[in-house]
Amino acid sequence: MTQETTLGLTPSECALQARARAFSLEVVRPRAGEIDRDEQYPWDIVKALAGAGFLGMTMPKALGGQDASFLDAVLVIEEMAKSCTVTARIVVETNMGAISTVTAYGSEAQKKLAARLVLEGDKPAICITEPDAGSDAMAMSTRADKHGDTYLINGKKHWITGAGVSRLHFIFARVFGEQGEDLGVGGFLVVRDEAEGTPKGLSVTRREKTMGLRGRPEGELTFDNLEIPADMVVMPPSGFKRGFAELMNAYNSQRVGAGTVAMGIAGGALEHALAWAKEREQFGRPIGEFQGLQWMLADMQTQLTASRLMLYQAARSRGPDGSAFPDPMIAAQAKIFASEAAIKIVNDALQFFGARGYSRDLPLERMARDVRMFTIGGGTAQVLRTLVASKMLGWKLPQTRDGYAPKPSNNPAKNPAMRDAAE
Questions:
Q1: In contact, 250 and 257? CB cutoff 8 Å
Q2: Which of 119, 374, 389, 392 has the fewest CB atoms inside 10 Å of its own CB, making it the most exposed?
Q3: CA 233 – CA 150 distance, rounded (Å)
Q4: How many helices (H) and strands (E) does the chain have?
Q5: pLDDT-based confidence at 413, cuts 50/70/90?
Q6: CA dist 159 to 163, 216, 219, 249, 416, Å?
Q7: Strands 168-176 and 285-286
């Protein structure tokens, strides 16, 4: 019995995993080091992913997708991440995040537009983070002012994945009505057309110099009276006032994807370490015969299996009230555990190789740089811990100086207001 079937995968899921593994080894791995070194987006790999049917898998068949599950996407992402983090992130962002949000809440025209772009090889860009609004997303200052049937967007976003290569942009902005009233936060779709170029009012003003994931641009976007028609507003059921939470709920799939990338990097690193433990000899015998290294391997495998189980559970889960997205608490726990475990696994795998592991001749140093991102991006490990605690307590836990207030108790003995009213 294979390890995969013991983790509850069906025969069809195992077949998909095997196909993704072969693609990763044959197509992706030979290019991974070059992608990192040249810091160039791998359009050849994107084309190959599209040809293999790994882009837009989770979209409905009516839109050209495969009606694949988030778990199907997770299986593909993990195998890609064993070879190349950038490729794995492309699979994440063409199956989760922005595309799943548009599929859930967009109009039919918006869905068709987004699906066409993804199937053509586009990686949609989620534009939410700002210089002064990172973990505190509600502090965003980018604004969309309504003028008749259009909105004018002004502001700045940074650390936008795909800046300069993405065509579809999903921009979060604070919305103001024609009388200047604050309507809440909305999502807006903007397309950078290859023939006509970047829309007037949208500019890429900086590319970040990143430690890892170098083949995938992270950049700063500036909006200067960017005009967006009203039919490009993604409107969730609750509208602007409460819709931000619904749009962000869709981000739970992205968190599962990010955790899977980290787990996949760790799995690839462990495979290198295991092979080296059998091949490398010191003191007249393979280093895998030394108990200290055996225990390291056992701990690495245990952490990897635990990460895999949590992420598979998160991918299979559904949020409250029948949401089509992963449960936020399960997704947060999975990303916290997998991303932190992955850093340790990769570091320990590098240690197996000694000075060789520190060399650029092996992929371990690239993996060590890449994996460090995943306790940060998509919700830091600290912010996600706050999310988990809030679900446990049943309280809202805003991080403002005013702090939080627990929900009033239904027990009169513990709620003075109720006790006074009863008397």
A1: no
A2: 392
A3: 10
A4: 16, 10
A5: low
A6: 8, 11, 5, 20, 48
A7: unpaired
CA distance 155 to 355: 47
Higher pLDDT, 297 or 8: 297
332 vs 241, 302, 413, CA distance in Å?
Answer: 24, 20, 35
Architecture of domain 125-239: Beta Barrel (2.40)
Average pLDDT, integer, range 348-359: 96
Options 3.90.550.10, 3.40.630.30, 1.20.1250.20, 1.10.540.10; CATH for 3-119 is 1.10.540.10
- Of 259, 260, 237, nearest to 247 by C-alpha is 237
CA–CA separation, 385 and 382 (whole Å) = 5
| Structural domain spans, the chain | 3-119, 125-239, 246-393
| Residue range 246-393 in CATH 1.20.140.10 | yes
How many Å apart are CA 2 and CA 20, to the nearest integer?
16
pLDDT, tens digit, 9 for 90 and up, residues 134-181? 677 778 899 999 999 999 999 999 999 999 999 999 999 999 999 999
Question: Between 318 and 14, whose confidence is greater?
Answer: 14
For the chain, what is the radius of gyration of the CA atoms? Answer: 23
